[in-house]
Structures are given as C-alpha cells and as structure tokens.
Write a structure and sequence with these properties.
Strand content: 5-15%
Number of strands: 2
Strand order of the largest sheet: 1-2
Distance between the termini: 32 Å
Number of helices: 2
Helix content: 40-55%
Amino acid sequence: MRNTALFALALIASAATITPTVADAFEPVTVSSIVKTADLDLASADGQRELDRRIVQAAREVCGSASDVDLEGKNAVRQCRDDTIAQAAAQRELMLAAAKSGTPILVASAR
C-alpha cells in the first residue's frame, strides 16, 4: 500500500553534547533536519530500509563530524548521532504502524 499522507520526521540534535573547545563560551545550538517520507511505501521492507537510511543520513547532517585526531570530538559526534537516531525511533514506529494499518497520522515535533 502506498503511503499517500505527507509525513515529515523532524530530527533534532542538541549541540549540548558537542560543546565548543573554547571553554563553554558559546550557548548550545539546536539543529534539525526534515526526513521526507511521502515518496516511500512504509508498508514495504524496501520503504522501511530507505526510511532508516534517510534517518541515519539526517543524523549525520545535524551532528556534523570531527577531525580524526580529535578523539573527544569523535566520541561526542558518535553520541550525538546515537541519541538523534534513538529520538527518531519513536516517530518512526508511529509512522510504520500507521502505514500498516492504513491510517494516516500527522507527526510533528515542536521544541
């Protein structure tokens, strides 16, 4: 079944886990990314795999990267990505349940 409703999954990563190296001189920044799913058939395994790929890609975008020589920065980025993907998991499950039941839902996040 093709999912006709427009779903937008907001991934929000708090840069509180990625603190600047300049002695906390900056406020944490919240970055978000929209994962569009209207073109996916979330009732199919292929659609679900593509959704997972898009979520991981969005987490990479919002969490950024760190230099290979910056181990602390690498760990912070990894933690940010893990937290962001975990946060998106609940919204993902709601979307998959709606796709399987044929019931459209609106998923939104206001922070």
